[in-house]
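Sequence only, no structure available. Ideas?
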Amino acid sequence: MLLRAGVQRLFGMPGGGSNADVIEAAGRAGLPFSLAQTETGSAFMATAQAEITGKPGACIATLGPGAAAIMNGVANANLDCVPLIVITDCHSTDPDKVIRHQALRQGAMFAPLVKLTEKPEPTEAANAIERLFAAALSVPPGPVHLDLSSEATSATALRELSLNHSHLPSRRDTGPLPSNGVESLRAARRPVFLIGLGARGGPIAGVIRAMCEGFGIPALVTYKAKGVVPDRNPWFAGVLTNGALEREVLEQADTFVAVGLDPVELLPRPWAFPQPLISVTAWPMQHRQIPGAIELAGHVVSILDEIAALLRITEWEKPEIGRMAEEQRERMRPEGEGHGLKPHRVVELTAQVYAGARATVDAGAHMFPVMSLWPAEEPSGMLISNGLATMGFALPAAIGAALLDRSTGKSKPVVAFTGDGGLLMCLGELRTAAREALPLRIVVFDDTELSLIRIKQVQRGYRTDSMAMGEVDWHSVGKGLGLLAVTADSETSLRDILRETLNHKGPVLIAAKIDPGTYPELIHALRG
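Reply:
I predicted one. Tokens follow.
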């Protein structure tokens, strides 16, 4: 069923119960398994593959501590609408076998974060698994959970399991466009696309690009939608966060067409723009943050075709859009007064060598220049935990992406941008990258503190010494875990390192010694 659902690889930090049965069965069926060093890391690896392919990812964890430890990865999939199949071991379903050791109410623990959780009796396993996979493949995308006992994996299937795809939207089913939406679209002279996570599918992205070119419509993309309209496209108008950086574009629009935009992608502050907003999604969204939004849910491409029939050539000009986008980038390049490597220069110098590569990004102050300045070229060309905004995401996500690229014959390295705090959270996955000999370039912004939290402490007049982590000898750490590890403390040394390691076959850990002094200016430019 995993293979038929489109799963490319199984990830996990397993136990010895039903997990071992699942791994063995997967191997016999031709589904490879990759050992992660952490349960959450395995979920992020599977999540990366799901985001890139649009098919479910899958991971396993043992009962008790394993199930509890994987919850952060499940929460991320929940908020970012990622199809993820989580399989955990569990104790016997026999009510006469009372077991307390490592016993948690795992189904109840997962239930608030998944679309469906199942703990099947051996005789009902087929029906439960079919229900679970139907939920995994339906919209909205999200995680599902299978609590699987050794009794269930030892049972004999009495029939062939079926995979039902009838739940996917095949046409627009919301009825005619509402009259106020039709009027807004016909009157639009300066419409703007607001592109979100639900627009990353290839056909949807292709239609959006064609409409941008055909009608002259600028597009703002959320972090999750980077690459749907590439940064180098003349109609790329910047990154949408509901912050200050993109305000000029939003203020000049007369109509918004949001495609796949989920409010979880926006900063949690009121939407300040009164222009009509038409939301086109594959599943209903909760748009309370944007009062008065006209929601059209169904087959997105069909709805966009109907919208295109109402539009005319806009009054926007390419040079105008290019100027606004470049001014946004320029505000992400503050020079400050300190010496040493500036965060934005780390991004730009890395992009000069690895432009076109897929990038993964961790939460933290460094993500602001990365998301604004890294040139994404395709949907899911950048992977980030946005709704949950968790640290410890970039490295395992890069591992999942690189394993997928290897299976499809791609050889270009994946670049992981992470903070020192985030990397310390998933340090063991450096060993996973080295063991798999993956072509990763792991760029750690090394400033020895939790910079984003420190900035918030400064804003509130609090002490900041509690955010200092101290120096980490990344060279020794990387070497001990089997990686090539190098340190850059200037633009010259970073250029040399990027050039010298360009053709290295395995992972490279690049510790960039950062001057964090420009972070407050970056954050103010972005968020106001």
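The longest helix spans residues 39-53.
Hope that gets you unstuck.
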